[in-house]
Design brief:
Oligomer: heterodimer
Largest interface: A-B, 20 and 25 residues
Number of strands of chain A: 0
Number of helices of chain A: 28
Order of helices and strands of chain A: HHHHHHHHHHHHHHHHHHHHHHHHHHHH
Helix content of chain B: 25-40%
Radius of gyration of chain B: 23 Å
Structural class of chain B: alpha/beta
Strand content of chain B: 25-35%
CATH architecture of the largest domain in chain B: 3-Layer(aba) Sandwich
Number of domains of chain B: 2
Distance between the termini of chain B: 23 Å
Largest sheet of chain B: 6 strands, mixed
CATH topology of the largest domain in chain B: Rossmann fold
Strand content of chain A: under 5%
Number of helices of chain B: 9
CATH class of the largest domain in chain B: Alpha Beta
Strand order of the largest sheet of chain B: 5-6-7-3-8-9
CATH superfamily of the largest domain in chain B: P-loop containing nucleotide triphosphate hydrolases
Radius of gyration of chain A: 26 Å
Helix content of chain A: over 70%
């Protein structure tokens, strides 16, 4: 199919012909649309890149294709198919795919995950174990030496690597990755370093928010005991360390292991890149799911370990966090600032610099609908999970809701595709499940709801963490007094402002989520991140930089507007 | 527990010890064997001094010489969150029989299998003291021991501490806000104010003959009188200002007197009375230990020193 598409797509005028061929192939091979359309789009884009049509013309080509795919998708609507559309579709299907049989294609698709897929998983597990250990140690070291109190500027520097969209970071370092493509080990090192730098703020935050259960005084008391052997001292301190460092390691492992976006743009081969590419190139969903089982087992093992560790956790008092001071603290902050420059400031500066010539040519014109889609999906998923946690009070139910998100976007999205498109519920529920419900699920699959739901699940672990933190730090007595006084300003400062900041962070994460969006978004509703990621594969141009910047500014603008409006509302009542 | 000061070499010797900008300033003193109380208001430097003594904090300047083997009950209790109450005492290698005695002494027997997170503040503070007493060392340092314990049971727990210290011939340095605790338990006292040692010495001497009003206040309320004031109010001739403790002053109702009551408040074991000298047209407050009915404002009183 791809070969057919590439053959036809080399001449832009023949795009529609190529699309027809592709739809034929799609109908013949899968009996469904999603993967085939994605594959067609990718193959067209690749052809566009190979024929040198990058930049503005490449963008136009891609955009035309997008519309073609949306049109083709409508042809294959299951209900209300017009006679003309049905005839056209039947004609396409009868024509078949020239040069490649159904059997041959399936065999080729099955080979996409072999022979080195499982070796790659093993390598990724080892790499992520090492990386998570280093990140936890380094982040813990930085977190313990930073000053006890930080102002908002210092917090901004610490959180910047985490909050900078991965797309921007990968876009910035993609050209360096290309230079290193001849040396896979160096490329892997660059990729692992970037992942580590981006995840260090998590370890720093964990060290500050979940201080060790043992106080400095208690540790010193243990050291005063005479004549204790080295092993007993070691056992004592390992036990006294608490579970927080192990949980941080587990969390960092999960995030590093599930990464796809950074690896994809840097052209690093990871299990997620292999599986994703195989899936969007047309690997049958069951094959994709079979491929996802091994990483899923790894992730589940870590999630179970996290749950077990969480049950043993002894809460540490915030007083146990003593923080650093003096020159040691200043040096630590310098290290953190350096990390922020590499993973946040430099990508932003570089993209801004590149975008200046392209700004007038592109601006917001071409990206507005994608930005609106991303915004709508992010708003939907953020509020869905935030409100869900508002209504769920049982701790176990909350945990159950948060766990699927830890499996990573790729595995979760594949599970969604299987659930909606393959009749899997009928297989699971047997006779209770009605056949017509499968059709309804397929209609649902064409809507943005699965994406919103999947994004909400992916946000759930972070949302639960933020909710717990807000609850822990809620000044209950002061809030009660503020309500009694009826002071909007106090209510804003004590309760609303932290909640708005937390919701803003969730919105931001959802807005820039790529993997689930690329698999679950309806074809005629492409999120900005997906489109930018696809275009970013073909190099850096001023037009693309401008689009990237405009897409990135939107969540900040929305957050600033929300905060500004809320502040104005609060100021009207200055008590 | 008051007794003769031991002639042994001192436990700690400090020479011009400084910590931070103001936490400890030029602290020079010797701490003898026996029981020493460190007294001072909040922020006076009590915890800083004890932290330096045990090596938890290093002084920025100065000389510090002290024992190598000691145990510490820190202000924030310093308990180990992963260990049960009993394990706290086992970890410090306390003999089993003594563990049971200490747990019983501090009313922790029934809580022996729980972890610190499940203990109340008072129980945590008792466990911290019990752990220090369980440690097989001759010198103990306790920062505000039993600080969260209800006053009604304080005496009982102090008697457990005293019993262990005396039985084993150990030394104890403890900080406290309470002059009563210092008076009842210590032989030696160190008074701190704003990071400086304002006085150190045998507690009985500091109590009865403090060098100035500041030192006097360290060990509770007192009346600091200049020569003129002593002559005016007490008809006493003294060469230099001195302290009269409440139990040394008697304020009794009188039929005729130049001294009248302006205000009187009963504070528990002592009373604070504001008196006005009609002839001299001056007024001042006195602390005394009342022996009769409450003094009414405007009533004449006689003010004199108790002779017994």
């Amino acid at each position: 199919m791809i070969r057919a598409a590439e053959q036809y797509a080399s001449v832009p005028e023949q795009l529609f012909g190529a699309l027809e061929q592709a739809i034929r192939a799609m109908k013949q091979l899968f009996g469904k649309t999603e993967q085939a359309f994605s594959a067609v789009e990718q193959s067209f884009s690749r052809v566009g890149a190979q024929s040198g049509t990058t930049g503005e013309s490449g963008f136009t080509l891609g955009w035309s294709l997008r519309r073609c795919v949306a049109e083709g998708r409508r042809w294959t609507g299951r209900s209300g198919l017009s006679d003309k559309a049905r005839r056209s579709l039947e004609h396409c299907c009868e024509a078949g795919l020239p040069g490649e049989s159904d059997h041959a294609w399936k065999a080729r698709a099955a080979l996409m995950l072999n022979p080195d897929y499982h070796t790659q998983i093993f390598f990724d597990v080892a790499r992520c174990l090492l990386l998570s250990g280093i990140v936890t140690l380094l982040g813990g070291w930085i977190g313990s030496r930073l000053p006890r109190t930080l102002d908002w500027r210092q917090w901004a520097i610490i959180l910047a690597p985490l909050c900078t969209p991965t797309l921007l970071v990968s876009y910035t370092y993609a050209s360096l990755g290309l230079h290193l493509s001849g040396a896979p080990w160096l490329l892997n090192l660059l990729y692992s370093t970037l992942v580590a730098l981006k995840l260090i703020p998590i370890a720093v935050l964990a060290r500050r928010l979940f201080p060790p259960p043992i106080s400095a005084e208690a540790r010193y008391c243990a050291s005063l005991l005479p004549g204790r052997s080295l092993s007993s001292r070691l056992a004592f301190h390992t036990q006294a360390l608490g579970v927080a460092p192990w949980m941080t390691t587990g969390l960092v492992f999960l995030l590093a292991f599930a990464d796809f976006e950074l690896a994809s743009l840097l052209s690093v081969k990871t299990w997620s890149v292999i599986l994703f590419d195989a899936h969007v190139r047309g690997l049958h969903i069951w094959e994709s799911l079979r491929g996802a089982f091994a990483p899923l087992y790894v992730e589940l093992a870590v999630v179970v370990a996290l749950v077990l560790l969480g049950r043993r956790a002894v809460p540490g008092s915030p007083a146990n966090f003593t923080g650093g001071s003096g020159s040691g603290s200043r040096w630590t902050f310098f290290v953190m600032a350096l990390i922020s420059i590499l993973t946040s400031a430099w990508p932003i500066i570089r993209t801004v610099g590149q975008s200046i010539p392209g700004w007038t040519a592109v601006g917001l014109r071409y990206g507005m609908s994608e930005i609106m889609t991303s915004t709508a999906v992010a708003v939907g998923s953020t509020f869905a999970i935030w409100i869900a946690f508002d209504f769920i009070n049982r701790r176990t139910t909350r945990l159950v809701l948060a766990l699927p998100g830890l499996l990573g976007a790729l595995v979760l999205s594949l599970l969604f595709v299987a659930l909606l498109n393959t009749g899997a519920p009928g297989f699971v529920f047997g006779k209770v499940w009605r056949k017509e419900w499968d059709d309804q699920l397929r209609i649902l699959a064409d809507s943005p709801l699965p994406l919103i739901f999947a994004e909400a699940l992916l946000l759930a672990p972070v949302a639960l963490l933020l909710k717990s933190m807000l609850k822990m730090r809620r000044p209950a007595e002061a809030l009660h007094l503020a309500r009694m006084a009826g002071s909007r300003r106090l209510l804003w400062e004590l309760a609303l402002q932290p909640s708005v900041a937390a919701i803003g962070l969730l919105f931001f994460l959802s807005y820039f989520e790529f993997t689930a969006a690329s698999i679950l978004a309806p074809v005629d509703m492409t999120p900005a991140c997906v489109r930018l990621h696809n275009l970013a594969h073909y190099g850096q141009t001023s037009a693309l930089s401008a689009m990237m910047l405009s897409a990135m500014l939107v969540p900040f603008l929305l957050l600033a507007l929300t905060l500004g409006a809320a502040r104005l509302y609060a100021r009207q009542d200055a008590r | 527990m008051h007794g003769k000061m031991p002639a042994d070499p001192p436990l700690w010797t400090l020479g011009n010890v400084n910590l931070g900008h103001t936490r400890l300033r030029d602290v020079s003193l010797t701490i003898p064997r026996g029981v020493t109380a460190v007294l001072g208001w909040s922020g006076a430097g009590k915890t800083s001094l004890l932290n330096v003594l045990v090596g938890f904090e290093k002084p920025d300047r100065g000389i510090l010489d002290g024992p190598h083997m000691f145990y510490w009950s820190p202000q924030g209790d310093g308990l180990w969150p992963h260990a049960t109450v009993r394990e706290h005492l086992e970890i410090v290698r306390c003999p089993v029989a003594r563990i049971d005695d200490l747990l019983a002494g501090f009313d922790l027997s029934e809580r022996s299998s729980v972890r610190p997170a499940e203990l109340s503040e008072g129980e945590r503070s008792r466990l911290s003291v019990a752990r220090a007493l369980a440690a097989p060392v001759q010198v103990l340092v306790m920062d505000e021991p039993l600080s969260h314990v209800d006053p009604g049971r304080l005496g009982r727990y102090w008697s457990v501490i005293r019993g262990v210290i005396e039985a084993d011939g150990r030394s104890l340095v403890f900080s406290t806000h309470s002059p009563e605790a210092a008076m009842s338990q210590a032989q030696f006292v160190i008074c701190l104010r704003e990071g400086r040692v304002i006085h150190s010495g045998p507690i009985a001497e500091v109590y009865s003959n403090p060098s100035n009003a500041e030192v006097m206040e360290c060990l509770g309320p007192g009346n600091w009188l200049t020569s003129q004031e002593a002559e005016l109010w007490l008809d006493e001739i003294i060469d230099a200002p001195r302290c009269y403790r409440p139990e040394q002053i008697s304020v009794e109702p009188a039929h005729i007197s130049h001294v009248v009551v302006r205000e009187s408040r009963f504070l528990g074991s002592i009373a604070e009375v504001e008196l006005r000298h009609v002839n001299a047209a001056v007024a001042r407050k006195f602390f005394h230990r009342p022996s009769g009915p409450h003094l009414q404002p405007g009533s004449p009183v006689s003010l004199r020193l108790r002779t017994e």
